[in-house]
Amino acid sequence: MxxxxxxxxxxxxxxxxxxxxxxxxxxxxxxxxxxxxILVWLExxxxxxxxxxxxxxxAGGPGGILQPIAxxxxxxxxxxxxxxxxxxxxxxxxxxxxxxxGFLPLAFIPLSERFVIVPSNLSMMLVIATAILFPxxxxxxxxxxxxxxAFIGGIRGAYQQIAYELLIWFSILPIAIxxxxxxxxxxxxxxxxxxxxxxxxxxxxxxxxxxxxxETGRLPYxxxxxxxxxxxxxxxxxxxxxFALFMASELYVKLYILSLFYSILYLGGWLxxxxxxxxWTLFKAMIIMFIVFLxxxxxPRTKIRNFLELAWTKLLxxxxxxxxxxxxxIWLGLGPGGV
Amino acid sequence: MGSSINKKELVKxxxxxxxxxxxxxENEMIVSIGPQHSGAGHFRIILKLDGDIIVDAIPxxxxxxxxxxxxxxxxxxxxxxxxxxxxxxxxPANLVMGYVRTVEELSGIEVPERxxxxxxxxxxxxxxxxxxxxxxxxxxxLNHSTMFMWATGDRDLFADxxxxxxxxxxxxxxxxxxxxxxxxxxxxxxxxxxxxxYFERHLDDYEKIFMENPILQERTIGIGVLRPEDAxxxxxxGPVLRGSGIKHDVRKDDPYAAYDxxxxxxPSFKEGDSYSRVMVRFRxxxxxxxxxxxxxxxxxxxxxxxxxxxxxxxWPVKSGEYYSRAEAARGEVGxxxxxxxxxxxxxLKMASPSFRNLPAxxxxxxxxxxxxxxxxxxxIDYWGPEAxx
Amino acid sequence: MGNPIKTLSSxxxxxxxxxxxxxxxxxTLKYPMQRMTIPEGYRGQHxxxxxxxxxxxxxxxxxxxxxxxxxxxxPTPKNKGGKFPLVNYNYCIYCGFCVHYCPFDAIHETNxxxxxxxxxxxxxxxxxxxxxxxxxxxxxxxxTEELKExxxxxxxxxxxxxxxxxxxxxxxxxxxxxxxVTEGVMGLKSWEKK
Lengths: 339, 389, 194
Known about the structure:
The complex is a heterotrimer.
Chain A lengths: L2 H14 L2 H6 L4 H22 L16 H10 L11 H16 L19 H9 L1 H12 L3 H32 L4 H10 L3 H4 L1 H14 L11 H4 L9 H26 L11 H22 L5 H29 L7
Helix pairs in contact in A: 3-13, 3-14, 4-13, 5-7, 5-13, 7-8, 8-9, 8-11, 8-15, 11-13, 13-14
Chain B lengths: L3 H15 L10 E5 L10 E7 L2 E8 L7 H5 L7 H5 L7 H16 L5 H29 L3 H22 L8 E2 L2 E2 L7 H24 L2 H7 L7 H7 L4 H4 L7 H4 L20 H24 L22 E9 L2 E9 L7 E5 L1 H5 L2 H6 L7 H7 L4 H5 L1
Antiparallel strand pairs in B: 1-2, 2-3, 4-5, 6-7, 7-8
Helix pairs in contact in B: 4-5, 5-6, 5-12, 5-15, 6-7, 7-12
Chain C lengths: L3 H17 L13 E3 L9 E3 L9 H5 L5 E5 L10 E6 L8 H5 L5 E3 L14 E2 L1 H4 L10 E2 L2 H10 L2 E7 L4 E5 L6 E5 L5 E5 L1
Parallel strand pairs in C: 1-8
Antiparallel strand pairs in C: 2-5, 3-4, 4-6, 7-11, 8-9, 10-11
């Protein structure tokens, strides 16, 4: 079609809530960025409350609500330093790729039955498949920074994220068995028939939660950015806007995406049928993120050796036990039945 | 990973600095945990890393040397009291205690009882402040920011107590040869008891969130084990020594300032790892609370200076050599004073506890992994300005 | 990791303590809208009683960094030589030795602690500057023009700390701002108590 028809199509789409509107505004870019901004503020206030102090107070209105915007303006006005002995195109490409890849799994997660950007029958697998590109990016960033500390951080990050991606996949496999399909909308429908899946699989929910902490680089598992030993690890050479892109994509956007995933898989998604279903999903995701922020204030950081031991020798057998329990439940006929 | 030009230059520089043969094989990397690093104090350690394991560690102190001992030869004995407390501003009263004890031996002045109890109170408040600072820094090195905030917040309450008693919050310069400068004010006892009650309750919270935290325990138990015979051979002092099972404390072996009249215990643990060194300091804080409560209860009436009356700007001296010591928060500090009868000392040497603990750092770091570096290095509690003087 | 049940239970106890501490009072003071009242006996800037000083120079002898020098002024009945102390606040360490050792009780310490200036010479205070206020020594504050403006805008309150069972509480004192601005010696504006 020619240009005029294309423009008419786009405007029609934006006004009626078609895929382009969903990709850009809700639940795509704009709303996610807004939520990321609120999350930065919320994390600092919660951590401050536990630590007997007041968090941001003066920036913007009451309670420092515009503090993340102030931080972003500060990052944007800093000088972009590119070291001399690096491969310049690749060095600059890495944060941009990280930002794009951080948003990619959002295309497949439904916020309610109406609001899914790319509906597909394999959405559970697609979310994991797009999230697995991130560890490779970590390793490449550490390598292309051409510095010892970044290299150590990159290697640690690669070890950690590959081990825990596997654990995520193993712990959500029984859900696909219980719901008889890989489509996330069917998963929520199966939960509507019986109870929330967290009651069927407490072990799986626990393992997934720990893996979620490891994937997003949150305390107690923020090893790739161990400040005190290796001075901010894998993104030590990046300043200004690059740093802001990394922080936003890894720490906040990924956390938001994985919390949404968690709330759909285990906590019933948009289930209580009354009210607005999108807000129910967001509310449950907020509860998970609140718990993650609280854990940040209560625990120190682990060591890489204990951490990998935990993943391979203790959590992997737990996921297999989880699978066996689920199979037994289905054989006994207590499952939610067919869809 | 750095071109080979940088490595050769760096090897040459290390050989110049340390006069040691720096043999670096192909697999090893040289990393400097230097003074400008978010993970070290005013102190530089040069590490040879093979993957994640530390093959060798070369310490490089001297970044903050301020020639304290030479300065002390140009000033009289009174002037040296504020100088003695400047190397370590976390617990200055214990350093001044060592110096004043030496000068009292030199001039033969006796200290009245009330002054001794007041000195004990000030010394123990400073010990609590120093250990709280240690807990804050130890927490933040393992990235436990809550511990840092709570410790520095509670330290403020003890600075308020210091201010009420002596007039200054951190560096007090409160002792003189023969007593103390000011008397205890009326409101001090009530405020001190309220602060101590609140702090004791808060220490239980510290224990649950920090000491019995499973992640902290797996990071510090069994790491950096120092056996008792190695500890004696290296000559370490303070909580490092007591964490290896040897009960040695100047307050019990060579008592000064009312410690022989107060009932307290010395904690020690026999495992010798990082966790026991941290627990020694924790239990010492609880013992200090008991000491302050007893001293406040038993405070005898009487003069606070000897001779009572006006203060004279020159302290009487005779010539000779004198040595005396006190128990600072990081270990035993010793002052060696050579006097030739004039009003300025001929030589004043301060043997600081951090410098005595320095050989333990490369000894314990060899063979450990890079991830253990904060747990080992901070548990020794090395204070750079105190060691460099 | 040892016993898994013990590990999990101590992990949950840590989280419980973190949540419990969310409800304790906060120790941060919203400076400069809330300021601490500095009590009596704090070792700050000095105040000189010109009619008690005899010029014996003990304060200059006993000062550790040698911040006090004696300068000549008009002789008074008590002070035949006319020597008065001049304090150089670039070097003063606020140890209080000059106060303790003065045999005539002529030099006191006030609770002024925030001396700031644009030049080094402005921190050398001659004896007239040390004897600014005749009646009550514990009230002198010097500050810049912007701080005075912001004071009026934010309405600073003065607080006192109280240690309770659960933490630190701040109580505000009765007077809102006990100072008024006057023109002082050497062009510096200063506050005086109302």
